[in-house]
Structure formats: C-alpha cells, structure tokens
Amino acid sequence: MSGPESARAAFQAQDAATVLVVDDSPVIRLLLGDILSAAGYDVRLAEDGAQALDMMKRRRPDLVLTDLNMPQMDGFSLVAAIKSDPNLADLPIVVITSEETEAKRARGREQGVDGWIVKPFEPAELLEVLWRLDF
Questions:
Q1: Would you state the torsion angle of the CA atoms of residues 49, 51, 57, 62, taken in this order, to the nearest 10 degrees?
Q2: Helix (H/G/I), strand (E/B), else coil: 115
Q3: Which of 83, 114, 119, 133 is the one with CA 20 to 30 A from 62?
C-alpha cells in the first residue's frame, strides 16, 4: 500500500482521536459522524454549544468541529467558552458553516479557531483540514 491509502491505514492504526461534532441539524451531525467514523475517529455528537460544553465537562474531546448558527449557544459563543476555560483552551476548533464572509472568518481567527470549512463541502476537504491539524 502506498500514497493516501497507506497514510489512512497508518492513521487508523493509531489510537482514535475523539472529535466532538456540534451542529443543530440532525442530518449534518449524522453525515459528519459517518465521515469521521469511517476515517477512524471516535465521534461524539451535540445539538448546540450548551450541550457540547456539558459533554466536554464529562469527557474532553481531542478536537471540536462546530457550526456557527445554532439555538441556545451559537458557535462563536461556544468557541469563546472553550478558549476561556483553562482546561479546554488548547483544544483545536474547526468551524463548519455556510457562512463565507471575511468578517466572520476574521472573528473566528481572533477567537482562536484553527480551521474553517464552508458548507457544502467534500468529505476529503474535511479530512484534509483535520489531518493538517495533526491533533
């Protein structure tokens, strides 16, 4: 095996990193869960930022993948809460959203977001962003 297949096999042989997916759309949560599980990640799913924070108190993920527009606690509020918590502040965060404006991206960078993926996306694009983060 060589190329992408061997890299993927080597990645899957490692301990599975835990990704917390935060999105209010059940369809998007399931889609992301399927993509990430197939790539060897341990996936946890949350409906919004409030539920995600509660889950992180019980079990810290290795990465957070979050939408921006959600009820109760949106993605920017979630990022701010994570970055202000000394136990979570170093977590890599990737935003996956339909928001494409430079102002939103700039706000994300200012808050410490590590990656930005615009919906709709290709599964390979998502995995490439996560692999580049090397978490």
A1: -60
A2: strand
A3: 119
Give CA 90 to chain center in angstroms. 14
Cα(97)–Cα(95) distance, integer angstroms: 6
**pLDDT per position in the chain (135 positions), as tens?**
444 454 454 444 357 899 999 999 999 999 999 999 999 999 999 999 999 999 999 999 999 999 999 998 999 999 999 999 999 999 999 999 998 899 999 999 999 999 999 999 999 999 999 999 988
Query: Which tokens is 105 given?
Result: 């991206």
Please count the other Cβ atoms lying within 10 Å of the Cβ belonging to residue 130: 25
**What would the DSSP string read from start to end of 47-63?**
SSHHHHHHHHHHS--SE
Measured between alpha carbons, how far is 39 from 16 in angstroms, rounded to an integer? 9
Q: Give the integer Cα–Cα distance in Å for 110 and 68.
A: 15
What is the SS3 assignment for 93? strand
Nearest of 36, 84, 83, 78 to residue 55 by alpha carbon: 78
Q: What does pTM read for this prediction?
A: 0.87
